[in-house]
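Hi, here's the filled form for the chain we discussed.

Project: internal
Contact: R.S.
Residues: 206
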Amino acid sequence: MCAEEGVRQFLDLGSGIPTILSVHEMAWQVDRDCRVVYVDNERVAVAHSELTLAGIEGADIIEADMCDVDRVLGDPVCQRLLDLDRPIALLATASLYYIPDAELAARTVDRYLDAVPSGSYLVLSHATLGQDRRDAMKLSRVLEMTHSLTSAATARTPEWIAGLLAGLELVQPGLVYTSFWRPESLRAQDDTPWHDAMLAAVGRKP
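And the returned structure, exactly as it came back:
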């Protein structure tokens, strides 16, 4: 979506292990000149990404804690590939809930948004407890998947997640469960643990 709106730079925070149709592959379907910087602090994820990105121009990875904003933005890879004077899409999808300190997570988002110019985007998804028991039960199954990782996931309230988007112009349909973000697409099946356990939104910095 961001590439279709003219953004040609992407900073993927907490990118994880590469999968089919990584960010650079999706962006390049719109424009091969898009540049992508991945950020992750897990050595295994970084090693996989380095292998995947070897020899590829326009995409690279930084091994760093996404919360260390100065380290990330000052890294030679970021300096080489991204122009902070031009709009950037900040991707914080399924990553902020690995930061157990809520204040640190919110401050991290604010600092990245402060560093990018008008016309930049925040692409966000975050685990939420929701307000009914069904959501909470399904979310517990999602969180069980994270126990083998370095940090377990932390679910937060819809109100807290909405606060991350304060001051941004929300792209329709706003902050909704991930399976509702693209109404024209198929909803996730009811038996998937992610269903109605993750909120997602895209906001544009005015």
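Let me know if anything looks off before we file it.
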